[in-house]
Specification:
The complex is a heterodimer. Chain A is an alpha/beta fold. Chain A is built from 17 helices and 8 strands. In chain A, the strands form 2 sheets. A 4-stranded parallel beta sheet of chain A has the order 2-1-3-4, sandwiched between helices. In chain A, strand 5, helix 12 and strand 6 form a beta-alpha-beta unit. Chain B has a domain of 134 residues: Rossmann fold (3-Layer(aba) Sandwich). Helices cover 51% and strands 12% of the residues of chain B. Chain B has a 4-stranded parallel beta sheet, with helices on both faces. A 4-stranded parallel beta sheet of chain B has the order 6-5-7-8, sandwiched between helices. Classes of the chains: A alpha/beta, B alpha/beta. The interface between A and B is large, with 46 and 44 residues. The complex binds iron/sulfur cluster (2 copies). One iron/sulfur cluster binds next to helix 4 and helix 5 of chain B.
Chain lengths: 401, 352
Amino acid sequence: MDTNLKAYFDGLVGSLGKKVAEQKTARRLLAYETGRIGQKLFDDNYAHAWTGVFVPFEIFRAMDVGAVFIEFVGAMLAGTGSSASFLADAEGFGYTGDGCAYHRAMIGAARKELLGKPQLLIGATTPCDGGLKTILNVARMTGVEPFTLDIPYPPVTKDKIDWLVGQYGEMTRYIERLTGKKYAPERMRESARLSNKASAIVKELYELCKLRPAPITSDTLRNFQIVFALLMGGEEGVDVAETFLADTRAILDSGAVPPEKHRLLWVQNRIQFKNNIITWLEEKYGAKIVVDELNHIYWDDLDEDNPLEGLAIRQITHPLNGPLEHRLAILDKLAREYSVDGAINPSHWGCRQNCGARQAMKDSLRASGVPMINLDVDCVDPRNYFEGQILTRLQGFMEML
Amino acid sequence: MTLEQEGIASAGWFCGYTPIEILDAAGMAPVRITGERASSGVADSLMHTNICPYVKACLESAAGGKLDFLKGAVFTNGCDAQRRFYDIWRSVVPDVPAFLLAVPRRGDDAGALAFAARLAEFKDWAEETFETQITDDKLRESIRAYAKLRKALAGMDDARESGEIDMPGSRAMEIYLEAQKTPPGAALDMLEKEIAAAKARAATGNAAKGPRLLLAGNMTDDPELARMFESYGATVVSDALCAGSRFSSTAPPDPDIPPLKALARAYLRKSPCPRMVDADDYASRLVRKIEATKPDGVVFHILKFCDAHLYDMPFIRDALRSAGVRTLIIEGDYTSGSGQLATRAQAFLETI
Ligand code: SF4
Ligand code: SF4
């Protein structure tokens, strides 16, 4: 990929748009809508925001802000096989090679002005230190004023909700000030309604994945919810959710459910560059990833009359926010509800919050009878990826199941 | 004799954003925990090789039973590594109760209000864990004691920088560490004696005359590092370290407002580490300090895998360069130096 990302998104949307018109499949539609989000970064009808990964996109939707989280950029560059040069650029500049490559790729991309210039930069203190640092560093590089959400930890208390809701208010005023867009409560109410609608459909979809065998392949819901979050609060989100549900039901009705011998849980993010691990697992062991940790609707419906409060609770209780106990409980619940035999944690190099937790996650899942393997890969940086070694370790793991 | 040997009940703390006045008011000696320099590999098996070596070194001590004497331990969310340390502590040292204090990043009134609410939870935990009542009077007394200690430490720093006292940076680091591991009254006594001795040394006119250095970094707490530079004729005259001048930079909490609110404000407004501010803010404060201290060079010693610092380093480096300050950047692993480090230190000193 060169410096013309706009052309890339235009091309993607053009070709996928045609395909979607011919036949609307779930993955196709998700890719198409994701491309359209990318286009919004260059569309004058939208304000352009680069953000942290778990921020409330419903608010942006209600204000016509086209937003992507910065890790999306790292994942996209890795997915298109072009992350290495951006990573090398950031390292050459002195950016630590021991940090998260999602962030390093973003710094390289910002240095090469790959994404143009945002109008808004909105970071959060969760899920990791590096994410916020990256937003602030990009702010410095682009001269754009940043806004930071300071996210309290669980348990939820009234004062924490009030504090975060107050910050959402400041954030909307920041957006208004920098872009001229207006926050309108009725638009927010609509955004909350659509978010609830999409969540309800996605919950149904996840319920189907609990069936044995699950009517999906390991890649059907790859990176799903983390990207889907960008569509929350809009009609597109509902459309994508409905298409996924319809496709999955159709597979179930047709009786052509992909077979499975082993059911697996994938912890945190997928490996973003091309690799053969999933195909190998499916073909050699009949193993299927039936649930990703981050594909999980853990929050209650937003109150349409008071949506910001629900968003605050959602953000405070995010499994990667705060101490580990909440995350361990969710992992355990997912493992039980999806009846998995084992779990894979890529243990993305440079992700402190994950790497620091990996032994605790392993112990906790093992106590529930679910073994977990840590792969020790960098999910965004293909330069040190040796597939043979990973497969050898996975082989031992799969044979033990 | 250590507090443990003297039978003084102690509570451990790690991050400079822990208002230790609350522990002191609970009748505990607040002890800043520093870790084992030699690794047995236990901590690596519990966390990951790419986690902050300071945290790993403390975990090593904890896993080896060396912190069992603590009556409690207070962690913060100062960084991902410390947050995870809290999680793991609870399975490694289940008998030493742990508290995770969530420190806001915002230093404004809203941030201080939120922090005061967390401090109230911290106080409740301390009362329950140490079976005591922390009255406002006790808290105010502890606040006064630490304010006095911090003022004296800051005074020591000023006197070092001006040459009024002759105290090598390595000794100052030791004093700072001792002050953070000793109850405030005893720490102040120790400090006053040290300052008097350093004044007497200055009067002899034999103070080192080599290059003056400022030592910056994160949880760089090893006096051997300063000693190494001193062994080549340099003097470490000031620092920007978590366990150094950042400890004494907390201004006296306002006595006219409720103590927890006063503590919340004072801590959020102390000299910030990169966790609290962006690279420009941090760098400009450092440049101001450099202008005031006029060192001949800055040595940045950053523990590896510290995202808060390392993500900002290219920008801080550029800011120091633009300010015309010679800078040596070292990534450390919490062990006491190496031959390669000594060579780099010598080469750096030759350029200034
Ligand atoms: S992988 Fe970890 S360090 Fe990287 S963005 Fe995600 S949570 Fe942060
Ligand atoms: S040195 Fe950095 S990573 Fe280590 S405890 Fe301090 S802030 Fe955290």
